[in-house]
Every structure is written in structure tokens, then in C-alpha cells.
Amino acid sequence: MLSAVLALSPESLVLGSRATVPARASANMGVGLLYSTTTGNTETVAGYLSAEIGVDAVDIADAEDLASFDGLIIGAPTWHTGADSERSGTAWDDYLYGDLTSADLKGKKVAIFGLGDQAGYGDNFCDAMDELKSCFEKQGAEVIGAWSADGYDHTESKSEAGGTFVGLACDEDNQPDQSEERVKAWVAQLKSEGMPL
């Protein structure tokens, strides 16, 4: 069995192909973990998620065919603060208004995580999560994984309504010691909300 898993091509892992994946190895192949990063903080949190769910994290610039996944966990930083669109300053900006617009994600569960800096950019904390949510919902995705804003020290966020973020907000600049525990709790929440993990 192990030799069959080791013989898998990177393409079959990235695309979540079930045709070449043995049944025991395919348990988490239905979920894509996608991110893009500017300073490395989003990649760090994607790494925590990868370790927790057993799925390799892939930069959106290298991903193909998101519709082939049963569920998606996606993450981005907020770089262009105050912007109405293209808020991440990463490859997500091109993807959201390019390839994503032709994707059929009807019925797919999507969970969003975002990175921000509460102290330096407290007026725009994790704003890019809201943009991801809007764009993926336009393609038919069901966004899950809303996260309480309790324990954060920011002023404002386009990704927050009624004390709840649209997804998991992390701050590797000011609260790096809380990210791993937040990830563990969030993954448990995603499972309870039907993410096929």
C-alpha cells in the first residue's frame, strides 16, 4: 500500500484525483488547501492547517481545477488595505477575477482563513476574507467556518459582521502564539459543519 502511495504523481495529489489514489490514501484527497502569501505569514498558517488535516497546501498560482475538489480551504493576507477589490496583493487577485469566474462551485463547501495585522492595520484587519467569500459565493460555493471575533484587538474589518468573521482570522505579527490552537479548534468546527475532511 505504501509503495502505491509513494508512486503517486504530484499532479494527482494537487488535483485530488481519485482514479489513481488508493482508497485508504484518498480519505482527505477531496479537500484542497489553497493559499497565497506576501510575507510568508499566510503560508505559515497554511502549514498549520496542512499538518492538522493531512493535505498539502498549494499556492493558488500553482493550483488547477478547483471544481475537482469536494471542499476547499482557502487563505489570503490583506495587503491592499481599504481597497474594494484585489485586497490580497497576491495571485488571488488575478485568480478571483479571472479563472474563478468560469468555475462551477455549486454545492462545494468553502472555508476561508485570512491573515492580518491588528496593530498596524486595525482598520482593515483581514479584509481580504470578505472578498474571497463574495467571489466564491458568486460561483455557487457554500461558505462555512465563521469564527468569533472575541480575543482580537482590531478596530474594523470588512470580513466581520455582528462579532463574527466570515472565516478564521489569524495575526502572525501580534498573536502568533494563538494561531495553532485557533487552527485546531477551527478544523474541528469545519468537520462539524460538513467539510469533507
UniProtKB/TrEMBL annotation:
SUPFAM superfamilies in alphabetical order: Flavoproteins
Keyword Transport: yes
UniProt domain Flavodoxin-like: residue ranges: 31-191
Transmembrane segments: none
Domain of life from the UniProt record: Eukaryota
Obligatory cofactor(s): FMN
UniProt keyword terms in alphabetical order: Electron transport, Flavoprotein, FMN, Transport
UniProt GO molecular function: electron transfer activity; FMN binding
Family stated for the protein in its record: Belongs to the flavodoxin family.
Full protein name: Flavodoxin-like domain-containing protein
Species per Swiss-Prot/TrEMBL record: Emiliania huxleyi
